[in-house]
Amino acid sequence: QVVEQDFDGFKRLFGKFINSTGPSVHWDKIEKLHQDAIQPYAGLPCPADKESIRQMLDQLVVIKLNGGLGTSMGCSGPKSVIPVRNDLTFLDLTVQQIEYLNKKYNANVPLVLMNSFNTDDDTMKIIRKYSGFNVSIKTFNQSRYPRINKESLMPVAKSCRTDDDIEAWYPPGHGDFYQAFSNSGLLEEFVDQGKKYCFISNIDNLGATVDLNILNMCLNLNREFVMEVTDKTRADVKGGTLIQYEGKLRLLEAAQVPKEHEDDFKSVKKFNVFNTNNLWISLPAIQRVVDENTLDMEIIVNPKQLDGGLNVLQLETAVGAAMKCFESASGICVPRSRFLPVKKTSDLLLVMSNLYSLDSGALLMSPKRMFPSTPLVKLGDNHFKKVSAFLSRFGSIPDLLELDHLTVSGDVTFGRGVSLRGTVIIIANHGDRIDIPAGAVLENKIVSGNLRILDH
Predict the structure, then answer these.
(1) Which of 92, 201, 248, 442 would you label with 63, given CA atoms 20 to 30 Å apart?
(2) How far apart are CA 343 and CA 366, in angstroms?
(3) Mean pLDDT rounded to a whole number for the chain
(4) CA atoms within 13 A on the CB side of 15
């Protein structure tokens, strides 16, 4: 049955890909956003008494997108099991957050993981350790589609079994959530239990915690779809943004932008927010759009090269792109602290440092930091890309409370108790090595050349 459902889904996606003509967005048809399209977070009322919070939470399901592997950070297995703080993994922190809510408000918020065939086996083994926790954990798998040959547009798979050739298959992006969630039977189960909303986010976004004010807004205003956006900085030019188009609010992704308008898209003035991929969606509304077959998401064509050099295409969709298929959708402009993704070891350095403290599974910016923005950190790929290599280069994680900008390139190590402040640039040229001594304080410094510190 699963193979059949996957095949039907792939047929629909491939048919749409083959028959699509022209761009999915005509630039001159983009309208100005309405005044109330994006609400400010600061104005949201806060639910007061414990009982009303419990009733709200009992209508919520938390869903984490858990289909990705840790390969880009040099780790095997699901990304969600990389330790990020105090030996706790993304998954540990998520479970802690939800258990805290359930205990504090005597609520019953379930956690649902959307796995892929890449992460499912490992995840199922790992979640056994949470059996004694006050959190009900459910999982379902997103679809498994065949990669297609770039030239012939034929599937590269020779059989329907993944194990025969794992490279021939891929999970088709998180836009697959709606159909896969419905196929799994969980959607119906939760609606029957009286659950009204799901909060969806990427498992590697450590800022995506359950926010009672946003949940309260969704319930009070009967929103079917709320996308958390945050103010764009120059570092966020790739993120999707919200536009008004043909009378509907919708997501505009970088991949949909015509070449000649790419600079417009990246401009902080013209499009001043980007999508955090934290989404609040009505469960009955998901049921409706799936049942009525009105889901319509732009196809993202993702070119890949397999190990043997074969060029293939992956057809994917994004979960936020379905926004235009829902009624009463809106954006909410949230503080930057709700977007804390860990994509690289440079992000890991920030979340492991004294910039943050841990409170019931949630990371909070230290009150000792004078300004709310996080430092800009660039670590050279050759020596810092893999988590194991990254960790081996720090005697302890440096003090970053007063750091603005850090660039490290080449063979560099840090002793214990180093403090980095202002703008620090450390560059070891090829063949050189720089050991930053224990206890060093570097403030607005450029370090280059060769500095070896050896045990005597």
Answers:
(1) 248
(2) 22
(3) 92
(4) 7
Assigned token pair, 248: 């509907």
Angle separating helix axes 212-221 and 50-57, nearest 10 degrees: 70
Question: Coil, helix or strand for 332?
Answer: strand
Task: Say if residue 138 is exposed, middle or buried (CB neighbours under 10 Å; 0-12, 13-18, 19+).
Answer: middle
Q: Sorting pLDDT into bands at 50, 70 and 90, what band is 307?
A: confident
- Summarize pLDDT for 267-283 with one digit per residue, the tens: 877 888 999 999 999 99
User: Tokens 């980095």 — which residue?
Assistant: 420
| Residue-wise pLDDT tens digits, 437-452 | 999 999 999 999 888 8
Taking only Cα atoms into account, the Rg of the chain, rounded to an integer number of angstroms, comes to 23
At 122, list the tokens. Answer: 């490992």
Compute the distance between CA of residue 30 and CA of residue 250 in angstroms, rounded to an integer: 10
DSSP, residue by residue, 46-106 = ---SHHHHHHHHTTEEEEEEE--BSGGGT--SBGGGSEEETTEEHHHHHHHHHHHHHHHHT
Structure tokens at 161: 């079994």
Sheet of 403-409, strands arranged across? 376-379, 403-409, 419-427, 441-448
pLDDT digit string, tens, across residues 144-169:
999 999 999 999 988 888 777 888 99
Enumerate the active-site residues.
343
Distance (Å, whole) CA 332 – CA 21: 33
Percentage of the chain beyond pLDDT 90 is 73
Query: What's 375's DSSP letter?
Result: P
Distance CA 322, CA 329 (A): 10
